[in-house]
């Protein structure tokens, strides 16, 4: 966390601690009604952008979605910018900036234009059945973008948008970030350093059938484990001269991970592995090839997996334990592990919890149940994590749905309404308050 950020977060937590009002104001009533009245138009926009394939590697498709959305933000008085990312191997990001009253709360709204479904995916179209719709990226994250726009339109209708300081950051590569990662996320991080509050518009979390708030998300990293050994006739396995072979060394390490690493909010999946004479990782890093015989001691083994933790400290500590396990070689073997941290965690903070309290004050004013914090072990990484060290935030501000990243992904269309209403009121209330920076 940057210098002075701890004091800033503490100050903002205090600022957020008390609700501004005990009931909906006239302007807030207008926002509630405007969102409800705009429902069918919002669904139509969602259908329009869902029908455009915007897989992370479909650069033309990602930009085509941005070209649909840019006029929507411009009509609300935002300055719109396309940030080219071709040098990072991706299409680009769409940023929209609105300058309000100086010295008031600065807010960053985060979503993404891309999906996991590339042009060759058989999952296409937009199928609506009442208040449910199915389509690629319909909830992750095109529905989230629609929630942002619905909230901003409601604010404009109520007269609360004019004074608000807002940056909307829609990345074009959230599902598969460009390289180098530092360059791919530079603009987002700069916006996070500017902001007092960040809101992430990926899907709404539901806990025991009730809407929940996301004040923390885990990191996403990967590891590659390679073991090597001298080869020879299998009759010598376990002997002093032949050793144990690369596969037994791999098995030792992975089993030690299973037994020795478990702790709360930590997972470390093994995605794939191969062993033999030889075994080689594919150029894409997502496959491996091997061959061998039953009577030959294997010379190589390779495995790749992920690592997810709740805090940076947990990441580093667990990585240290993994390296120590790897270093305890079986006789006649060698092993190395490479660990890469990509998406950082969004650790739970007092400021994040206070922001959820503010949202729950709005829920009370709307006559809705309070949203409990969602267990971070159930949420993956997201772009909001890149700005978490610099500002307070809430994630999961997008619509409810199911089946993200899989054929049949669906959205509860009515959840757009309640999420946009919550957002419009929260952003409007915060926009009236002084920036703690």
Automatic annotation (TrEMBL):
Which GO MF terms does the UniProt record name?
A: carboxypeptidase activity; metal ion binding
Q: Which UniProt keywords apply?
A: Carboxypeptidase, Hydrolase, Metal-binding, Protease, Signal
Q: Where is the signal peptide?
A: 1-22
InterPro entries given for it? Bact_exopeptidase_dim_dom, Peptidase_M20, Peptidase_M20_dimer, Peptidase_M20A
* Entry's EC annotation: 3.4.17.11
Origin organism lineage: Bacteria, Pseudomonadati, Pseudomonadota, Alphaproteobacteria, Sphingomonadales
Query: SUPFAM superfamilies, per this entry?
Result: Bacterial exopeptidase dimerisation domain (SSF55031), Zn-dependent exopeptidases (SSF53187)
Q: Which residues form the Peptidase M20 dimerisation domain?
A: 215-333
Name this protein carries in UniProt: Glutamate carboxypeptidase
- The species is Qipengyuania citrea
């Amino acid at each position: 966390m940057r210098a002075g950020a701890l004091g800033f977060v503490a100050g903002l937590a205090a600022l957020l601690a008390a609700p501004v009002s005990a009931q909906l104001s006239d302007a807030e009533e207008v926002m509630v009604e405007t969102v409800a009245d705009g429902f069918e138009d919002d669904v139509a926009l969602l259908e329009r952008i869902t029908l455009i394939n915007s897989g992370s590697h479909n650069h033309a498709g990602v930009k085509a979605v941005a070209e649909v959305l840019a006029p929507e933000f411009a009509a609300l008085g935002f300055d719109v910018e396309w940030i080219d990312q071709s040098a990072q191997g991706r299409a680009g990001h769409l940023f929209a900036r609105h300058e309000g009253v100086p010295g008031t709360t600065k807010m960053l709204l985060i979503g993404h234009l891309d999906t996991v479904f590339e042009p060759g995916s058989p999952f296409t179209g937009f199928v609506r059945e009442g208040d449910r719709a199915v389509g690629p990226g319909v909830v992750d994250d095109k529905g989230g973008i629609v929630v942002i726009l619905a909230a901003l339109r409601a604010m404009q209708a109520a007269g609360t948008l004019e004074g608000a300081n807002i940056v909307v950051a829609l990345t074009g590569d959230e599902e598969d970030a460009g390289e180098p990662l530092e360059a791919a996320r530079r603009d987002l991080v700069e916006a996070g350093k500017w902001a007092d509050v960040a809101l992430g518009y990926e899907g709404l979390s539901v806990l025991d059938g009730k809407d929940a708030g996301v004040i923390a998300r885990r990191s996403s990293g990967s590891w590659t484990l390679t073991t090597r050994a001298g080869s020879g006739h299998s009759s010598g396995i376990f002997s002093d001269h032949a050793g144990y072979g690369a596969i037994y060394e791999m098995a030792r390490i992975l089993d030690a991970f299973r037994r020795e690493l478990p702790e709360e909010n930590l997972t470390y999946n093994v995605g794939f592995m191969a062993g033999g004479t030889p075994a080689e990782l594919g150029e894409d890093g997502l496959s491996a090839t091997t061959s061998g015989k039953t009577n030959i001691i294997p010379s190589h083994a390779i495995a790749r997996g992920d690592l997810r933790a709740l805090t940076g400290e947990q990441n580093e500590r667990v990585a240290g334990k993994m390296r120590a396990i790897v270093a305890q070689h079986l006789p006649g073997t060698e092993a190395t592990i490479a660990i890469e941290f990509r998406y950082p965690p969004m650790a739970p903070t007092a400021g994040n919890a206070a922001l959820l309290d503010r949202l729950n004050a709005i829920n009370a004013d709307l006559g809705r149940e309070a949203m409990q914090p969602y267990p971070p072990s159930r949420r993956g990484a997201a772009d909001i994590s890149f700005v978490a060290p610099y500002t307070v935030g809430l994630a999961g501000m997008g619509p409810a749905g199911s089946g993200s990243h899989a054929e049949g992904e669906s959205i509860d269309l009515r959840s757009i309404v309640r999420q946009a209403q919550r957002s419009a009121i929260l952003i409007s209330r915060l926009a009236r308050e002084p920036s703690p920076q």
